[in-house]
Amino acid sequence: MASLSLPRVLQQRKTSLELERENFEKFQCISIGKALNPIEAPLKEKHVRSAIIGTFQEKGAGTFWMFVLRQPIHENRIVAWKFCHVLHKVLREGHAKSISDSQRYRGKLENLGKYWQHLREEYGRLIQMYTRLLVTKLDFHRRNPRIPGNLQLTADELEAIGENDINIFFQLSVEMFDYMDDILNLLRAVFEPWSKSNSNSMTSSGQCRLAPLIPCIQDASQLYDYCVKILFKLHGALPADTLTGHRDRFTKQFHELRTFYNTIKPLQYFKQLITMPSLPENPPNFLIQAELRTYVTPVVTLPPEEPIDADAVVDSLIDTSETSSLVGDQIDAARNGSISPDVLAERDSLIDQLHQENGRQRQEIHRLLSEHQNIVESLRSRILELESILTIKSSDIILEKQISNDLRDQTANLVARCQEASDKNKTLEEKYQKFKAAYSKLREEHINLIRTKADVDKRLGSIKLLHEQSERRSAEAEQRLQELIQGQATAEQEIQRVAQARAELDTVRTEFDAAKTEILGLAAKIDFITSEKAVVEGDLHDLLAQKEELDVRINDLQLEAEHSKAQLKTNADAALYELLLNCISEADVIVQTAVHGIDNPAISAVTCTPDYLRSLVSPALESLDELDNVYRGYLQDPSQRSQLARSAIHAAYLLAVYLIHAKSTSNTATDITFGDQMTDKCKQLGSQSLIMLGNIKEKSSTAQDQIAIVKSKLKDISTQADTLMNNQGNADVIGDLVENELLSMDKAIEEAATRIQDMLNKSRAGDSGLKLEVNGKILDSCTELMKRIRVLVKKSRLLQTEIVAQGKGTASTTEFYKRNHQWSEGLISAAKAIAMGANFLLEAADKVVAGNGKFEQLVVASQGIAASTAQLVVASRVKAERNSNNLAALSEASREVTQATGGVVATAKSCSQLIEDNEDLDMSGLSLHQAKRLEMEAQVRVLELEQALQNERLRLSALRRHHYQMAGDNEG
Q1: CA distance 235 to 289
Q2: CB count, 10 Å around CB of 289?
C-alpha cells in the first residue's frame, strides 16, 4: 500500500502558489463565516480585521464579495445587519481598490435594502437605511475618487481636490451634506427606539445594534470638519445670500449631531471603544472669516489595536485538533516500535524525495521571482518610455494648437488686408476715373484752343495781307501825292484820299496791335495748357504703374486668400467633426444621467400616469426615425454633421425624458413584480440607447440595426404602460364605490348596535342567574364597543370631508376619489372590513347568548373590528393635515375603540372563567382508578388541543397570505 501511495502523492502535489491561494481563500471563508454568524452579538474585531487584511493581500475585494454573497444575508436579519457593518469597515479600512471593486455590487445592496424594508420589526428598517448609506458612500467615492475610504485628508489634499474652483467646492459641499443626512438618519433610526425601550448597552443584543454606530461616528466627524472648512471658503468667494440654503442645512445637521454626541457619551459601551468629539454650543458663523482661526477640528480617537498574530488567528479559525491527534498517534506508534522497518525506510526515502522536490520548488520560485522582477523592470522602463512619448505628444499638441491659432490669426489678417486692398483699389479706381475725366476735359479744351489758334493765325494772315495792301496803298498814295503835287488840279482830291488812307492805316495798326496782344495771351495760355498736360500725363503714367502693381498684388492676395480659404475649410471640417463627437458624447451623458436616475432611491416617490407616458412615445419614435434618416444621409454625405448632431441630442433628450417618466409610471403599479419588470425594461432601453450612440459615434454599420432595437424596446415599455393603464381602469368607478361602501359600513354598524340592544332586552326578560349575569356583561361590553365605533366612524367621516374639501379644488368629490384611487381603495377596504367585523361580532354575541357559541369568537371579532378601525384611521391620516382638529378627535376616538375592545376581551375572559369556576369537577367521590383514567383522558385532550392549535395556526397563516394576495390583486 505504501508503494502505491508514493506516485499518487507526487502526482497530486500542487504548486506553492496554488496552495497559498487555497489557504488564503479557506482562511477568508472561515473569517467571514465567523464574522457573519446569526448570533445577536457584536462583531469580533479579529474576524473583521482578517477580512480587511485579506483585501490588502489580494489588493482588492473580489474574494471578500465572493464569500460574503454565499452567506444567508436574505434569510437572517442579524446576518444582514452584520454584513452591512463588515462592508462599512472594509470600505473604510480595506485596500484602496475595495471601493472600486464594490461598485459593481451596488445594485445588490439596493435590492437587499428593498427586500428587508418590508420586514415590520426594527432590524428590517435598520438594514434598509444602512444599505442606503453604503450606496451613498459608494456614489460619493465614485464621484470623488481622490477621497479615500476613511475620509482622511490633509488641508493641501482638500485644496487639490477643489482645483481652486469654487464650483467644485460648491458641489462637493452638497454631496457631503447628502452623505451626512444618510448617516444621521441611520443614527436616529438605531438609537431612538433603543433609548425609548431603556435597553442596556452592555447586553449582547444592545451591543449588536449599537456597534455599527462607531464607523458612522468616524465618518460624520470628518464630514463635519470638511463642511466647515469648505463653507468658510465658499463664503469668502460668494455672496452670503447665495449660500443661505447651505447655512440652514449645516445648522440643522450641527444640532442633530451635537445632540447625538451628548446623548451617547454617558453609555458605558462607547466609553470602552471610542472617544467622542466635542462640538461647541453654537455653530460657526461663516459670515465672519476670523472665526476660522478659532475653529477646532473635532477628533475621534479609538483605543490602540492589538497586533495581529496570524498563527493565533489561523488556530482560532481552523480546528486542528483532529490533525494533532493523528500526528500524536503516529509519534506514539513510532516510539512504541510498532512500525515496521520497511515502512520506516520507505518513509525515509519519501522524505528524501520530498526534500529534493522542495529544493526544485525553491529553485522554481527563485526563477519565477527573477522573471517577475525582469518583467517588472521592463514594464517600468516601458512606462517611462510611454510617459516621455506622452510628454512629447502633449507638447506637440500644444505646439499644433499654437500653430493653428497663428494660422487662424494670419488668415484673419489676410482677409483684413484683402479687404483693405480692395477698398484702396476702389479709391484708386475712383481717382483714376476722375483724372481720366479731367484729362478728357483738358484734351477737348486743348483741341478748342488749337482751333482758336488756327482761326487767329488765319485772321493774322488776313491782317498781314491788309498791312501789305496798306503799304502798297501808302506807296501808291505817296506816288500819287507826288503826282498830286505835280498835279495841282487833282491835289485836293488826292489830299482827301491820303487823309482817308491814313485814317484807315491807323485803324489797321490798332487792330494789328490788338491781334498781336491776343496772340501773346493765347501763346501763354497754350504754354500753361501744355505744362498742365505734361503734369497730367505724368500722373497718368504713375497711376497706370500703380494700377499694374495693385493688379499684381491683388492676384497674389487672391491666391493667398484661396489657399487660406481651403485651409479654413479643412479646419472647419475638422472642428465640425469634433463638434459632432462632442454632441454625441453629450447625448451619451444625457442618457447615462437618466439611467442613473432610474436607480436613484429619491425617484421612487415620483409618479406619472400611463396616459401621459403614452403621449411621450410618438415624439421619441419620430426622433429615432429622424436620427435613422439623417444617419443614412451622413454616411453618404459627411457634410450633414450638424443635422446628425442635432438629431442625436434631440433623440437622447426625448429618450431620457421617456426613461424618467417610465420609471415614475412604474412606481404607480401596485404589483411590485410588475413595477420591477418595467424598471428592468427601462434599464435595458437605456443600455441599448448608449450602445446606439456609441455605434453612431464610431460610424459603425450596425448603428441602424441598433436604432431598430431601441425602437423595439421603447414599444415594449409602451405596451407594459398600456397594460398598467388597463389594470388601473377600475379607478373610474372608485368615487361612487367609496361613498357606497362608507354608507354600507354606517348601515351595518347601526343594525349591529340595534340587534345587540334587542338581544340585551330579550336576555333580561328571559334569563336569570348566572346566564343573565354573563349575557348582560357580554352584551353591555359589545354595546359599549359599537357605541365607540359609531363615534369613530362619525369622526372619520368628518375628517374625510375635510380632506376632500382641501384636496379636490374645483373638482367634484367623486373626481377627487377617482384621482386618488389607491387611497380610496384603502378606505373601501377598511370600510368593508369594519362592516364584516360588525356582522361577525353580532353573530358571535348571538351564539354566546343562545348558549352554543364560544367566548373566543367574541375576542376574535372585537380584535378584528379594532384592527379594521385602525386601518380606517391610518387611511384617513395619510392625507390629513398634521394640525387638524378632526384628526386629533379621530385619534382620540381610535384610542376609545381600543379601550372598548380591551373591555370586550376582558369581559369575555372573565365570563369564561366564571362559567369554568361554576363547572369545576367534583373530585371528592373519585376512586384512584377513576382519577387516573380522567388524568389520562385530560392528557389526551391536551395533546389533541395542542395539535389542533398548531393546525389552526398554520391554517390562519395560509388564510392571511391568501387574503393579502387577493387584496393586492383587487387593488391592482
Answers
A1: 8
A2: 12
CA angle 829, 832, 837 (to 5 degrees): 120
* CB 765, CB 846: distance < 8 Å: no
Confidence of residue 274 (pLDDT cuts 50, 70, 90): confident
Helix (H, G, I), strand (E, B) or coil at 669: coil
Q: How many CB atoms lie within 10 A of CB 320?
A: 10
Here the cell at position 504 is: 484807315
172 burial (CB, 10 Å; 0-12 / 13-18 / 19+) is buried
Grid cell at residue 746: 354606517
The domain at 730-919 falls in which architecture?
Up-down Bundle (1.20)
Instruction: For 866-897, give the secondary structure using H, E and C.
Output: HHHHHHHHHHHHHCCCCCCHHHHHHHHHHHHH
Tell me what pLDDT residue 748 has. 66
Assign 3-state DSSP to the chain and report helix, strand, coil percentages, each to 5.
85, 0, 15
Convert the pLDDT of each residue in 27-56 to its tens digit. 889 888 888 999 888 888 888 898 999 999
Q: In this structure, what C-alpha cell is assigned to residue 810?
A: 374645483
Residue 517: how many CA atoms within 13 Å on its side-chain side?
A: 5
Q: How far apart are CA 469 and CA 685, in angstroms?
A: 126
DSSP assignment string, 297-312: ----B-PPPPPP-HHH
Superfamily of domain 578-727: Talin, central domain (1.20.1420.10)
Beta-carbon contacts of 642 under 8 Å, excluding residues fewer than 6 positions away, are 576, 580
* Rounded CA separation 9/361 (Å): 15
Helix, coil or strand: residue 791? helix
pTM: 0.37
Span 890-924, pLDDT tens digits: 788 778 877 877 777 777 677 766 665 554 444 55
**How far is the C-alpha of 445 from the C-alpha of 417, rounded, in Å?**
41
Instruction: Please return the burial class of 937, using the count of CB atoms within 10 Å of its CB with bins 0-12, 13-18 and 19+.
Output: exposed
108-119 burial code (b ≥16 CB/10 A, e <16):
ebbebbebbbee
Which residue in the block uniquely carries the three cell numbers 461647541? 280
Between these two residues, 879 and 79, which has the higher pLDDT value?
79
What phi, psi does 301 have (nearest 5°)? -115, 140
**Cβ atoms of residues 246 and 234 within 8 Å:** yes
Tell me the β-bridge partners of 301: 275
Alpha-carbon span 469 to 462, nearest angstrom: 10
pLDDT tier at 175, thresholds 50, 70, 90: very high
Q: Do 838 and 752 touch, CB atoms closer than 8 A?
A: yes
* Percentage with pLDDT > 70 across the chain: 71
Instruction: Examine the pLDDT at 711 and tell me if it is beyond 90.
Output: no
Give pLDDT, residue 843: 73
Whether the predicted pLDDT of 5 surpasses 50: no
Query: Where do we find the cell 447586553?
Result: 203
How many other CB atoms are found less than 10 A from the CB of residue 745?
27
